[in-house]
Amino acid sequence: MLLGSAMFFGIAAAGSAQSNLVDLGRAVGGQQVRLDMSSLQRVSDRSVDFLYYLGNDARYSQANCNAGSWTTFLDGSVHYPQSDTTARMVQIVCEEGLGTTQAPSTTRWVVFDPPSNVRDRPNGNIQCVVNSQRTINVYGSQGDWLITDTCGSQGFIHNSQVRSTR
User: Fold this and answer.
1) What domains are there in the chain, each with its CATH number?
2) Helix or strand holding residue 96 (H, E)
3) How is residue 161 annotated by DSSP?
4) Per DSSP, what are the bridge partners of residue 156?
5) Can you give the pTM of this predicted structure?
6) Secondary structure of 100-120 in the HEC alphabet?
7) CA pair distance 33, 130, nearest whole angstrom
8) Handedness of CA 120, 126, 127, 132 (dihedral sign)
9) Tens digits of per-residue pLDDT, 77-126?
10) Which region holds residue 15: left if phi is over 0, alpha if psi is between -120 and 50, else beta?
11) Number of H helices, E strands in the chain
């Protein structure tokens, strides 16, 4: 069970069919912090991917439950709690997320014909190269490009380089 003070809202978030937002309070900068409980996705024995909102800005992130920190995919910044609100966010993500199973197959894709470039934007600069066949996380798409965290921050891989694991 989540903390008793958490309020649940059934609000549809942009880009998702249905979300389950929890209003956690305010960050040190005064912005409202909301956690999308529907986004929790265990990726390892210590890491959970999740979506939270800082004010109106969506932040796709990954919690490092051993370190008590989280990394935002867009900029690759590592964050440590600066308020009770963000400390509670990491606690909830880790307690609830590590109890979940691997992501649904619709978000897992296989790089089937490496080497494959992951870019900072569609047709942009190369962030990293996937040199072996492997499964990657996919968070959405932009035209023919899929959004992934394969390089440790948000990047794009062309859909011709991957196959759905369904």
Assistant:
1) 7-97 (no CATH), 105-164 (2.30.30.40)
2) helix 84-97
3) G
4) 119, 147
5) 0.53
6) CCCCCHHHEEEECCCCEEEEC
7) 34
8) positive
9) 999 999 999 999 999 999 888 774 444 334 678 999 899 999 998 999 99
10) left
11) 1, 15
